[in-house]
Structures are given as C-alpha cells and as structure tokens.
Predict the structure of Tol-pal system-associated acyl-CoA thioesterase.
Amino acid sequence: MKEFNWPVRVYYEDTDAGGVVFYANYLKFFERARTEMLRSVGFEQDNLLAEQNLIFVVRSVKVDYLKPARFNELLDVSAKVIEHKKTNFTFEQSIIRQQNVLCTAEIRIACLDAQSMKPKLIPSAILEHLN
C-alpha cells in the first residue's frame, strides 16, 4: 500500500500550557492514522477482536520531534508500512503542516491473541492490503 494520509485538527485539549501540542499527543495522532488506514481497506479493529480474537499493540516507538504544532492547526498525518514479519509491522509515520515536517516516527506494531497476549500471525487478508 502506498502512504496513507489522514487530516488531524489540533484541539485545545491537545496542547500544553505553552500552547503547543503536548509531546505524547503526537502518538495519538499517529494511532488515529494507523486505525484509519486499516479502516480504509475494510478492517475494523473491534471486528478483528470479536471475530478473530486479534489485537494490535505498540511494541516499540522511535520519535523525532522537529517543530511544534499549535492549537487549531490542520495537520496531515501519514502512515506507511515499511516492513512486516509474520507477527508484526513496522510503520514509518510523519506529521506535516503545509509541507513542514513537524514530527517523524518509526512504530512497530505486534499482532497478538487477545486472550493469551501471545504473538499471533497477521491475517493474510490484511497483509495483502497493506503491502
């Protein structure tokens, strides 16, 4: 799959006392883009849990904060699978405001059995859509 993009508006609740986006909230923006990426190819995470006892969890995160985002700005959040193995994906993600890169991340997502919390094979149907 090509790079997926999702618009995010910065709300007051996303900012800190200095009026800039609180650093942890960038992770929420990245999460929304990955969720919407899955949704765009027909996979709802609640259905994956109910039907296949499958969940996705963050395994590791590497983030570089380059420039601040501020209240009421419209941002573009991207997500692209750059590597996949049998039980995990690695996403390359960025947050951009008018061609200015504000934040980049490499996020590894593991596929787990929801009950045992042990690694589970990523369904082939998902891999077909995200590669």
